[in-house]
Write a structure and sequence with these properties.
The protein is mostly helical. It has a domain of 40 residues. The protein is built from 2 helices and no strands. The relative contact order is 0.06. GO terms for molecular function: DNA binding; transposase activity. InterPro entries: Homeodomain-like_sf, Transposase_8, Transposase_8_domain. Belongs to the transposase 8 family. This is Transposase.
């Protein structure tokens, strides 16, 4: 099982000139970004639910 040529070249373009420490830092930033996106999504759902409750009480 391999990867497609397009995937390989996209990966090489993205990570080819990066040192291991830079790669580690980039992965940490990507993980933090994903965590924050999930947090925003959850807060958006909470806000929508609260607004729905408020409109039903009025």
């Amino acid at each position: 099982m391999g990867i497609s040529d397009a995937t390989f070249y996209a990966w090489r373009k993205k990570y080819g000139g990066i040192s291991p420490s830079e790669l580690k830092h980039m992965r940490q930033l990507e993980e933090e970004n994903l965590r924050l996106k999930k947090l925003v999504a959850n807060l958006s759902l909470d806000k929508a639910m609260l607004q729905d409750v408020l409109t039903k009480k009025i």
